[in-house]
Amino acid sequence: MDIHEYQAKEVLASFGVVSPDGALAYSPEQAAYRSRELGGERWVVKAQVHAGGRGKAGGVHVCDSDTAIYDACEKLFGAKLVTHQTGPEGMGVYRVYVEKAVAIAREIYLGFVLDRTSQRVMIVASSEGGMEIEEISAEKPESIVRATVEPAVGLREFQCRQIAFKLGVDAGLVQQMVRTLQGCYRAFTELDATMVEINPLVITADDQVVALDAKMTFDDNALFRHPQISELRDKSQEDPRESRAADRGLNYVGLDGNIGCIVNGAGLAMATMDTIKLAGGEPANFLDIGGGATPDRVAKAFRLVLSDKKVQAILVNIFAGINRCDWVAEGVVQVLREIEVDMPVVVRLAGTNVEQGQKILAASGLPIIRATTLNQAAERVVQAWQNDQAQGVNMRAAS
Ligand code: GDP
Ligand code: MN
């Protein structure tokens, strides 16, 4: 789960990481008022979306009056901010963060990630702050400093000092760097984060080490033990298809094609995507029904996939171990009896109770296309979709 910049700054502040004074606003009026509350002469107005690259996309404005703040916010609120991280549809701006502007002397990149190779938390830092880490590693790879943390002892002070020296930070500022690094590390481990990124971490003209931006991502599977973090979820920043599924206890991944996929297990989902692509099709999504899915759960999954406007054909691919093919078949039949589905539906069942499942599908009298192997299923759904599209074109041409 991702959180907003202002939330990450608040979380990190409780671990001793300093950021500029700021306040949240839900409207242009409020933003202007907030700046007067904060005091000072220059402020930065920042669109709160779950994506980086806001600066280059017009989501960050430095303003020197409350009217300038109002005007900047007028443009931001309700708009979709399109950055190189959001995809072309952008992300809605419903909150802005107003901060006192600081005079920047130096910008540093700082990131904490989980390094799967060493099985440790890895610190990635660079003296080239402000640029994205991908750019830095492409253009200035020699500027990158890496360090891994031994979990039994945690992040040691000498490591922090080493990082600070490698970044060329003045000796007088090293203590502030140590506090920042250790604060981030503690926040990362104590809150089960999977990523903490401060870009840029700045050294101000008056020698303060300050987090000017902050990003945190948390492990969904550990959220149950951090209710104060789960509360920070903002559904307006999620793919509505994915949040609807999450609310129903289903795993849904939205994609850009037009074949909806109902599968069980992530591995089978991947294989199904690949096979569809190999057959010349493009998946619209995949929905993982998990294990032991009841007919009701299957029906729910089916309706969810149907509600995705991109979907023009459906492939149900179940390799049943804990699942039961008869329950899956019942769920599919239940939905197709309830709703008029005017697109091809291909069902491939294998494993537990497959004979009963096939019987239920055959006895239903519904136009379900059956397949026995994954290859066959993928070929049939792509073929059926293509036929459907061709017919659609003919009908439009005739009318
Ligand atoms: P991002 O583009 O989404 O990563 O947003 P950031 O929060 O990193 O802001 C983008 C850029 O705006 C930063 O790299 C800074 O150069 C600039 N910026 C942000 N806050 C301030 C500030 O208080 N003072 C000044 N001078 N520049 C700022
Ligand atoms: Mn940034």
Which structural traits does this protein have?
single chain, 399 residues, alpha+beta, D-amino Acid Aminotransferase, Chain A, domain 1, Dna Ligase, domain 1, Rossmann fold, 6-stranded mixed beta sheet, 13 helices, binds guanosine-5'-diphosphate, binds manganese (II) ion
Description:
There is one protein chain. The chain is 38% helix and 25% strand. It folds into three domains: 1-19 and 103-237, D-amino Acid Aminotransferase, Chain A, domain 1; 21-101, ATP-grasp fold, A domain (Dna Ligase, domain 1); 240-390, Succinyl-CoA synthetase domains (Rossmann fold, 3-Layer(aba) Sandwich). Strand 17, helix 12 and strand 18 form a beta-alpha-beta unit. It has helices spanning 5-13, 28-38, 66-76, 133-139, 157-166, 174-190, 227-230, 240-247, 266-278, 295-306, 325-338, 354-363, 374-398, and strands at 22-25, 43-47, 60-63, 80-81, 91-92, 96-100, 104-115, 120-126, 144-149, 193-204, 209-211, 215-218, 251-254, 259-263, 283-288, 313-320, 345-351, 368-371. The two termini are 48 Å apart. The chain is elongated, with a radius of gyration of 26 Å. The chain has 13 helices and 18 strands. The strands form four sheets. Strands 7, 8, 9, 10, 11 and 12 form a six-stranded antiparallel sheet that branches. A six-stranded mixed sheet has the order 13-15-14-16-17-18, sandwiched between helices. The protein has 399 residues and is an alpha+beta fold. The structure holds guanosine-5'-diphosphate and manganese (II) ion. Manganese (II) ion is lined by residues 52, 199, 213.
